[in-house]
Amino acid sequence: MADASFNPKIIGFMCNWCSYAGADLCGVSRYQYPPNLRVARVMCSTRIPPHIVMRVLAEGADGVMLGGCHLGDCHYISGNYFTVKRFDLMKKLIQAAGLEPGRIRLEWVSASEGEKFSKVVTSFTNEIKALGPTPVKSNPQIKKNLLAAEKAAKNFRLTALTSKEYVIETKGNVYGKKTDEATLKALVERTADEEYERALILTLTVDKSQSVKDLAGAMNVPTDRVLEHIVELRKNNLIAMEHGHGLTPTYKAIIIGGE
Amino acid sequence: MATDVTNEAPRVGVFVCFCGSNIGGTVDVKSVAEYAKTLPGVAYATSNLYTCAEDGLQNIKSAIKENKLNRVVVASCTPRTHAPLFQATCEEAGLNKYLFTFVNLREHCSWVHMKEKEAATQKAKDLVRMGVARAKLLSPQEEPRIPVEKSALVIGGGVAGMTAALSLAKMGFPVHIVEKEKELGGFVRNLNNLYVTTRDAMETIRPLINQVTSNPKIKVYLSSKVSDVYGYVGNFDIKIKTGDQEVKTKVGAIVVATGAIEYTKDSLYGYNVYKNVITLTEFELMCKAKTLPKVQRVAFIQCAGSRGQDKSYCSRICCNVAIKNAINIAENYGNMLGQSQELGKAIQEVPVEQKAPTEVLERRRRRRGRGEGDEGVADEAKFGPGESIEVTIFNRDIMSYGLDHELTFNKAREKRVRFVRYIAEHRPEVIMKGDQLTIKYFHETLKVEREMPVDLVILSTPLVSPPDQEQLSKMLKVPIGQDGFFLEAHVKLRPVDFATDGIYVCGTAKGPADITEAIDQAEGAASRAAIPLMKGYVQAEAIMAKVDQDVCSGCGTCIEVCPYGAIVKNDKGLAEVIAAACKGCGCCGASCPEGAITMTNYSDIQLVSEVLAALKEAI
């Protein structure tokens, strides 16, 4: 429950042209808001890949707010349409990781909406206060999950898909074929689930070799699905089979180079 | 020459600004500077009363030299206005400008947490820690030089647009001026006369129109519209739709002078409900066309639809316009009906700028009961009851700003124009009593409800932006403010620039202004636009995408997502960025499935380090 002494740390990524400028105008107009937000300026909200947000949440941010120009007003023509797609993926991934979806927020604040900036920051801060401190600190599994989500967000297939989603919807693929929003969304969600689970398998098997059954239990995923993932991961030389425990094979992530 | 710091260990200098009491009044600036000294990598930290003042800048330069600083963090106001200044200071001290980081302690901290001094100081320390973390990872960058197309586009052929176009043409640049109407002149085409002169308004600006149309450098497109704009400062590709044709051209700078229109709303004080309720501009048009009705009692209602009624702002010019017309009516209504050859003859006989000071003195004398001005007597004789026209101006307060106009206001009072004050809570009402148009109002001084039968009601409605403003704003990627007018880059420091380089704004497109102001702004916008045109090149910011050729797999995702077509496949089938076309948005960087694209100055590692620094528990 909400704790009066809880002082959340909220990270903001604000685009230079609208939301950062709106925050400036907010200051110039002396609209007040709670002092929990720490803003990093970026040129466009489209600059923020989902893996950075996963990392920030894994490292203990209580909330993350992305700010961009209103749709149609992007300084870079279409940047924020991509942001929408990336943000959908972020939501999907943090939910998979067991974090409340309300911990991230996307807001459009124009350069002239100083008052709106103070309002959205105030309401987001209050929502985060109501959610309480991030579970990352009390529950190490959630941190691991988020790091797996970070890894999934860097995955080739998922990144390419989320990035092209808007293009395929509006202009079509390289052959000019368009796909409707719902189909693409379903595809991205399915891919996100798969890549998240695979990333989680790799995270869970970094330190300790594990059996399919162990993994299925830890991840709360059916064993056949875990096995499918392992087959796929083995194809890509990302995981190795070991026979440490009698007849049951166990698997260990292959680490190349190192962090 | 800038020294190469790439292989040196970071030595960060932190300059925390009091900004007088703007930051210092809320944030404990000294303790923030002390705290900065404890951060790893910080070699020097200090506080300044005003870092942007000469001694503050000198301090940065000498500290860079004396302490061998290779990164600079200024914690003060917003990078959106002050980054260029501090970057230039770094360059003067031999440090590449990309080794500088801005921390915003004013707009993002002291001004928004004014009542939470401790929390604001804590936040300031966090923000400085973030800035230092980012600064340590910065590397020097070279800015690409991009050639500029030495010509300009002016959108709007009113007084502001024509003035800007003429200015630029006189500097030697070809100018395309696009006007949507079939003739030049803009809003002035609606006007009868312009304040102190009594000549026909269009005749007053005729010399300007002639200069524009006869200037060989200026190409005028009438009944035309800008249909597409693509590009950036120095290199805008423009499409102009003129008739059935589409003209394509390239310009280096754009001046927006699209003007404003008059606000009208049905049933606002009986507008479009009762005959003889008209707006100021309709009145002027009727003056021009000599179609004014013969009336005895005229009332103006100021701030109709503005200052909190429908629009929140003050339209600024309507007090002066109403007073001008009130004097015209009081002096000369008979002639205005169409019997005279020359408009406003009476005023011409007594030019206001010469006559007014004497009149003021006369007036004061009369007030004190001493002496008797001839004019006063003459006025009374001329405008006795039943003989002439009564003019009343209902107003909240008269703002006849400008040197001449205060005198014009006095003159109106000399001419027996009545000024009746109302307050926002008690706006007058226009009603029909029987078949008599009547104004019901609350007399603020007498505190009584009164009724005034009138024959003609003139509403001073505000100027508003034209309906196609939004379309243009989207095409140019420039913002519109809360009042619907174009929003300049900075209200005080950059009044005619847009935040987007190479696009400028002047005249009523950015808010109500009179002709003098519109011309001032137009000259300003023209000279701002001439800076890149004169220079012949622009230095693009070195915030751009770079592809690591060893990591790129040639999948082409970046090529598909880039809104500028700035990425192409090279002969190895790998992605390559065209520096001149890249705008640095970072869409490709976030989209690259291989993580092969780095955004210079906003790399993943710089961003992550910056925000993770915020999460560290403060000391």
Properties at a glance:
heterodimer; A: 259 residues; alpha/beta; Rossmann fold; Arc Repressor Mutant, subunit A; four-stranded parallel beta sheet; three-stranded antiparallel beta sheet; B: 619 residues; FAD/NAD(P)-binding domain; 4 domains; five-stranded parallel beta sheet; 18 helices; globular
Structure described in brief:
The complex is a heterodimer of chains A (259) and B (619). Chain A is an alpha/beta fold.
Give a verbal description of the structure:
The complex is a heterodimer of chains A (259) and B (619). In chain A, 50% of the residues lie in helices and 15% in strands. Chain A is built from 9 helices and 7 strands, in the order βαβαβαβααααβααββ. In chain A, strands 2-1-3-4 form a 4-stranded parallel beta sheet, with helices on both faces. In chain A, β1 (10-15), α1 and β2 form a beta-alpha-beta unit. The longest helix of chain A has 24 residues, at 181-204. In chain A, 53% of the residues are buried. The mean pLDDT of chain A is 93. Chain B has 619 residues and is α/β, with parallel strands linked by helices. Chain B has 4 domains: 1-141, 3-Layer(aba) Sandwich (Rossmann fold), CATH 3.40.50; 152-260 and 465-538, FAD/NAD(P)-binding domain (3-Layer(bba) Sandwich), CATH 3.50.50.60; 263-463, FAD/NAD(P)-binding domain (3-Layer(bba) Sandwich); 542-600, Alpha-Beta Plaits (2-Layer Sandwich), CATH 3.30.70. Chain B has a 5-stranded parallel beta sheet, with helices on one face. Mean pLDDT of chain B is 89; it is low at 339-357 and 368-387. Chains A and B meet through α1, β2, α2, α3 and α6 of A and α4, α5, α16, α17 and α18 of B.
